[in-house]
Amino acid sequence: MTVTHHVRVHRSEEELPREGQLAWKIAEVATDPVALDAAVVDMIINRVIDNAAVAAASLARGPIVAARAQALTHPVSTGGAGASIFGLDRERTSPEWAAWANGVAVRELDYHDTFLAAEYSHPGDNIPPILAVAQHVGADGAALARGIATGYEIQMDLVRAICLHRHKIDHVAHLGPSAAAGIGTMLGLGTEVIAQAVSQALHTTTATRQSRKGEISTWKAHAPAFAGKMAVEAVDRAMRGQTSPSPIYEGEDGVIAWLLDGPEATYEVPLPAPGEAKRAILDSYTKEHSAEYQAQAWIDLARKLHGEHPELADPANVERIVLHTSHHTHFVIGSGANDPQKYDPKASRETLDHSIPYIFAVALQDGGWHHVDSYTPERAGRPDTVALWHRVTTAEDPEWTRRYHSEDPDEKAFGGRVEIELANGETIVDEIAVADAHPLGARPFARPDYIRKFRTLAEPVLAPEEIDRFLALAERLPELTAEEVRELNFTALPGVIDLASAPKGLF
């Protein structure tokens, strides 16, 4: 059964034993040697494939080119064999820099898994740092799977309980601790060491949400990679006997008191009880479309409406479109954000992927969504698209907000109701609760869907035999030897990666 931990701020004169601190409780979960459920192992394999798919599709994109170039300037550290970088064959780098480069590749397209509760998260971001350390130290597939299960469990449990965005703190503040805990599980470290690493990782990864506001920059992809890199460094530091700010969550000058709900705040954080399997990954969900998760269901609804009402593609037929939806969708990616950039045809890809008015308009016109074509400047600037796009607004609906936050998986929803007023006076109304690919959706994702997604995204950049080799390895993940874990990477076709043309920096 799950144990709920009461977490509050403690004044400096109050004694809070380390065993009562949240960082220690997280570490206790990480050191619990409970076996993995078969369903959890199966989902871990799915997500390793999913991460590789979106990373392959990103190999030539600017943020990845830069991050990869940075990583390659750092030689393998003396403590291990180094870690591989997505797309490259023999090149190795120090594990924290592999976590950096591969973390950017995984996040760039915003196309991997998600979990939404009190906070937002992409728990697949745990995989690059944990895998990088596994390759460096020679961990086998079973240890890697245990580490990934812990990473998902800790991040998702924190996401269930502690809201960061309300205080304009970026969601990767939950990722640093989870990745550190996952690495600790994989390495078999003690509770004290993991607790210190968790504290350090949190301390160094709290940052503002400006990275996801206004004109969104390339840092959006780098932020989780930075958290993973810091987690690797935090574990290294803790293994050397160094301590960290404590209590990091509950301290008088800690994260809760000054960055979150304040000195009087309390949180109820659920964590697995001793001996309880780490099953959180089963509550996460991946993306069929390359866009913010709250856009997934709306793309599917737009695709449906495109088939049923093709006349909606012409803005001359549409008076206005209102998406009645949750608080988050309205205020973060909808018109409630009051970001003029969300209606700007010259906005960056990162901004457009956080604009539900743009996404719904394009999906309504095209009857689908493409991870590259739907974001091009030409597509965003098309006059009929701009006209339709500017007719789309969002509105918060209390019922959809309630369902968004519901803990009942059968009613939890990420969609809403659309009302389309036509120029002829008629109105079209439709709604959708969850994306088609969601476990409760019209076409839930299963292993064949993950494999198809990987093949679709990888075929332009990987040879067929390389695709088959990677998939064969990934599907045997818990059985892999240490040497096979080091091969859990893919090599791009000649010409896809041009190392000589990468931008230059300090390193």
**Which superfamily, in CATH terms, is the homologous superfamily of the largest domain?**
2-methylcitrate dehydratase PrpD
- Can you tell me the number of structural domains? 2
List the secondary-structure elements in sequence, H or E.
Answer: EHHHEEHEEHHHHHHEHEHHHHHEHEEHHH
Taking pLDDT < 50 over at least 5 consecutive residues as the criterion, the unreliable ranges are none
In DSSP terms, counting alpha (H) and pi (I) runs of 4 or more, how many helices?
20
Q: Label the overall shape.
A: globular
Main sheet overview: 4 strands, mixed
Strand content: 5-15%
Radius of gyration: 22 Å
Helix content: 40-55%
Please report the first level of CATH classification, the CATH class of the largest domain: Mainly Alpha
Description:
- Pfam families: MmgE_PrpD_C (PF19305), MmgE_PrpD_N (PF03972).
- This protein folds into two domains: 2-268, 2-methylcitrate dehydratase PrpD (Orthogonal Bundle), CATH 1.10.4100; 293-432, 2-Layer Sandwich (60s Ribosomal Protein L30, Chain: A).
- It is built from 20 helices and ten strands.
- The protein has helices spanning 22-31, 38-56, 62-72, 95-107, 127-137, 141-161, 175-187, 191-204, 219-239, 255-259, 296-308, 327-333, 349-352, 356-366, 377-380, 383-389, 398-405, 447-458, 464-474, 482-486; strands spanning 2-8, 83-84, 92-93, 115-116, 120-121, 266-272, 318-325, 392-396, 416-422, 427-432.
- Strands 8-7-9-10 form a four-stranded mixed β-sheet. A two-stranded antiparallel ribbon has the order 1-6. A two-stranded antiparallel sheet has the order 2-3.
- Helix 5 (127-137) packs across helix 9 and helix 6 (141-161) packs antiparallel against helix 7.
- The model has no long low-confidence stretch (mean pLDDT 96).
